Amino acid sequence: MAVRTRPRGKGRDLPRGLLQGLSFWSLLLAWLFLSWALGPQVFPGPGETLGFLLREAQGPLWHHLGITLLRVGLAFLMAMALGVALGVLTGLYRLADRLLEVWVVLGLNIPRILPVVVAYLVLGLNEAAAILALVVILVPQVVVQIREGVRALDAKLLEMARAFRRPKSLVLRHVVLPQLVPYVLGTARGTLSLAWKMVVLAELLGRTSGVGYQINFYFQMFEMRGILAYGLAMTIVLALADKALLLLGEGLSRWRRPVEWL
Amino acid sequence: MALKLRAACRDLTKAYPLPEGGEVLALEGVNLEVEEGEFLALLGPSGCGKTTLLNLLGGLDRTYGGEVWVRGRVGYVFQEPRLLPWLTVRENLRFVLDRPGLNAEDVIHFWLAQVGLEDYADRYPGQLSQGMQQRVAVVRAFLVKPDLLLMDEPFSALDELTAQRMREELHTLWESQEVSVVFVTHNPLEAIYLADRVALMGPRPGRVLEVLDLRSLLPRPRDPDDRRLWELSREVIHRLGLKGQKR
Could you give the CA distance from residue B11 to residue A16 in angstroms, rounded to a whole number? Predict the structure, then answer.
């Protein structure tokens, strides 16, 4: 096995931690600059925002954050379950793919605010409408990515399992699912991120609790600190969830990293 | 006579549909018998239907004309190892066992030791060389105690040194087990070194040109450097060339 050396300049080999630090500090600097340029009344800096966030943490923050996370979690789980099932079906069977084709294309291309507004108008301003709208927005993304994963299944490995007369349950567990893991995890990260962006919109439009509602509340009050604080809190929580999914993916693909080459 | 057969095909025909309509004949009128415990090589150039014939024998393809039957359990070794990369060597071997009970570990250890890989049971395939992976694939096929072992150019992707060592290992394993082997290859020397009989196949459409019986010509044990192997190999190439062009 040939080992390729990297004929690149030393500048490209800066440690990863340093680059990440640079990325973080430049963002913070940009925030500070913006706050300085516009004035802290119009655009509060990181200090003011964090202070506001800590004060909210003594009060209603956890309540609203919890409710939003519950909505995101519910919509995410329902969309993943439905989307993975439909993705597998459309990946395996041409009939299912053709039957669902128009639905998926429509789902991918309608303005994402539309299902929210329609659900509120048809079902009323309630929890079910908000969750349903979120699921409708999320499912097509999941279907498309899982379908591609199923289509990319290694036919040679499936043939090997058939040659050894392996039962379907064993083939599903040891041959099919491990190949779908990267697709499911990749889709899960994208879906979670989209779910959180849309839930805030749904709450802003028609709920009386949650991070989106609070952002709307502080918008009415012209309180920029509140808007930024709630946005920041939600971003931190979702970034942690995303990191957890990433670590889960690395754990599940240990076999991709050989200990040593022989 | 019929009892001594492990597998057979009679007047076997296989056609593949073409995308532009019509079909192409991959095999036409193939008659072949595999005796119990014999080592049969299918030798011929690319595109003469060797793999197609093997897949029909193995039941991987079930649309054909004529008749195919196989008596007993089938083991398979493909051209590539086709190990599940997310399972360790041990788990890959357990995957093919019907009831991996308490003694499964002993059985797996025994078979890995036969090819010198007993210390690699907990490695992932990606951590093994190509030759080692193919050894695991051979072990996997023997592990299911096959009556008929189908091998599709299993050593063609390996370097010649490794390939020759594996031919010797395979020969030893075959002699120790009462298994019939159908071994597809395009390498005349390999076929002649390993096989009791060699079925010469020709292309367009794939068919068996003749079957050479080597048992009296080349008694075992055989030496890979034996001059007669080389002479027979030249003879086989000559015959393949002549007979393959007749149609």
Answer: 66
Q: Specify the pLDDT at position A25.
A: 92
Q: Which residue has the tokens 């600059």?
A: A33
Enumerate the residues of chain B whose CB falls inside 8 A of the CB of residue A166.
Answer: 95-96
Q: What is the ipTM of this complex?
A: 0.90
**Alpha-carbon gap: A258 to the closest alpha carbon of chain B (Å):** 5
- Grade residue B244 by pLDDT with cuts at 50, 70 and 90: low
Q: What is the C-alpha to C-alpha distance for residues B184 and B76, in angstroms, rounded to an integer?
A: 12
Residue to substitute from B96, B133, B162, B182, interface A, most A β-carbons within 10 A: B96
Cis check: omega of the bond before A115, within 30 degrees of 0: no
How far CA B206 is from CA of B54, B111, B242, in Å, comes to: 12, 36, 15
Q: Kindly report, residue by residue over A76-114, the tens digit of the pLDDT.
A: 999 999 999 999 999 989 999 999 999 999 999 999 999
With contact defined as beta carbons under 8 Å apart, do B193 and B217 qualify? Answer: no
Which residues in chain A have their CB less than 8 angstroms from residue B76's CB? Answer: 160, 163-164
